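Practice problem 4.
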C-alpha cells in the first residue's frame, strides 16, 4: 500500500535560499526531522552551490549527512552544474535535481549558461552519476516553463523541445516549474499533456507557485492530467531569487489538506505537518510564513485519508 501522490518538500532548499536570514545548522536538523516525522518521504534538503553565492546553503553536506540518517527518506539536492553534482554525490544524496530554464533569458540570469549548454551539463552529470553513484536518480526541474518575468512568453513548443532533449541527455524525469507564478489551470493541463505525449512516463513533478493565487488550482489541474508528484514548501517559504517578482511556493499544509479532503492519500499526517512550522519559526525568527489551513484549523470531524490508510496498514 502506497500513497496516491508524492508530496516533495522543497522548503529546506527552495525556501531557505530565498530568504535573507540564515537558519542555523542545528535548526535545519530539527526542522527536517519534524518534516520527516509528519510522513514526508522526499525532501530537497539543500543546494550544492558556492557559499559565497548562497551563504544559506554553506552547510549543505552536513545537512545531507543528517538527512541520510532518517529512515525511508529520499534525500534530494539541487545541483546547478557538474561541480555541485560531484559534491552532492560525495555527500551521498539519493536524488539530484538540475534546474534547466525553458526561458533563454532566465537561463542566463540563473545559471549563466544557455539552454544548450545546460543540456550538455545534464549529460555530463548523468555520466558522473553512472560512473560514481549509479543508484542515484537524476531529474530536471524545468524552470519558467509557464512564463518568465524577464523574457515574457515561453512558447510551449520550446518546452516540449527542451524536455525531449533533456531525456535524450539522460534525465530520468523532467518536471515543469511555474517559477514566476504565471501559469493558469488550462495552460497547466495543456502543457503537461504535450510534454507527456513527447516523453511519456518520464514526465515529472509539478512545481507550482502561488504568486497570483493559483497555486492549488494549478496543482489540481496537473493532477487531473496524471501528475502524481508535487513540490511544495512548508509555510509557503521561498521563491526564485533570479526571477524578479517571483514569490510564494505552494504551501505544503494547504496542498496536503486539499488532497486529503478529496480522498487522495498523501502519506502525510497533517497535524504533525502543521506542528513542523514551529521549528521553522524558531530557526528563522520573524520570517513570515503562510498557509490558510494552519490559520483556519482543520474542519470539525475532518478525517484525513492518510490516517485511515495508516491504521489499515498497521492491522
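Answer key:
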Amino acid at each position: 500500500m502506497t500513497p496516491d501522490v508524492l508530496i516533495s518538500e522543497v522548503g529546506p532548499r527552495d525556501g531557505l535560499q530565498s530568504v535573507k536570514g540564515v537558519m542555523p545548522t542545528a535548526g535545519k536538523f530539527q526542522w527536517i526531522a519534524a518534516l520527516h516525522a509528519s510522513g514526508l518521504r522526499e525532501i530537497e534538503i539543500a543546494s550544492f552551490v558556492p557559499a559565497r553565492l548562497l551563504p544559506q546553503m554553506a552547510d549543505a553536506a552536513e545537512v545531507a549527512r543528517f538527512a541520510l540518517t532518517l529512515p525511508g527518506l529520499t534525500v534530494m539536492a539541487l545541483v546547478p552544474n557538474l561541480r555541485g553534482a560531484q559534491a552532492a554525490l560525495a555527500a551521498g544524496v539519493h536524488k539530484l535535481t538540475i534546474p534547466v530554464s525553458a526561458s533563454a533569458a532566465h537561463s542566463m540570469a540563473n545559471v549563466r549558461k544557455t539552454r544548450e549548454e545546460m543540456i550538455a551539463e545534464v549529460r555530463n552529470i548523468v555520466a558522473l552519476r553512472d560512473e560514481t553513484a549509479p543508484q542515484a536518480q537524476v531529474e530536471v526541474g524545468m524552470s519558467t516553463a509557464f512564463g518568465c518575468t524577464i523574457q515574457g512568453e515561453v512558447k510551449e513548443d520550446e518546452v516540449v523541445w527542451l524536455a525531449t532533449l533533456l531525456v535524450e541527455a539522460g534525465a530520468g524525469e523532467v518536471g515543469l516549474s511555474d517559477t514566476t507564478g504565471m501559469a493558469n489551470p488550462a495552460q497547466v493541463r495543456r502543457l503537461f499533456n504535450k510534454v507527456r505525449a513527447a516523453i511519456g512516463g518520464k514526465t515529472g513533478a509539478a512545481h507550482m507557485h502561488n504568486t497570483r493565487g493559483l497555486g492549488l488550482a494549478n496543482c489540481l489541474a496537473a493532477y487531473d492530467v496524471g501528475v502524481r508528484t508535487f513540490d511544495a514548501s512548508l509555510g509557503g517559504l521561498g521563491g526564485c531569487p533570479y526571477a524578479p517578482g517571483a514569490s510564494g511556493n505552494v504551501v505544503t499544509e494547504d496542498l496536503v489538506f486539499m488532497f486529503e479532503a478529496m480522498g487522495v492519500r498523501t502519506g502525510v499526517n497533517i497535524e504533525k505537518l502543521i506542528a513542523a512550522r514551529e521549528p521553522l519559526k524558531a530557526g528563522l525568527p520573524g520570517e513570515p510564513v503562510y498557509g490558510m489551513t494552519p490559520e483556519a484549523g482543520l474542519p470539525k470531524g475532518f478525517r484525513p485519508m492518510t490516517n485511515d490508510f495508516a491504521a489499515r496498514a498497521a492491522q
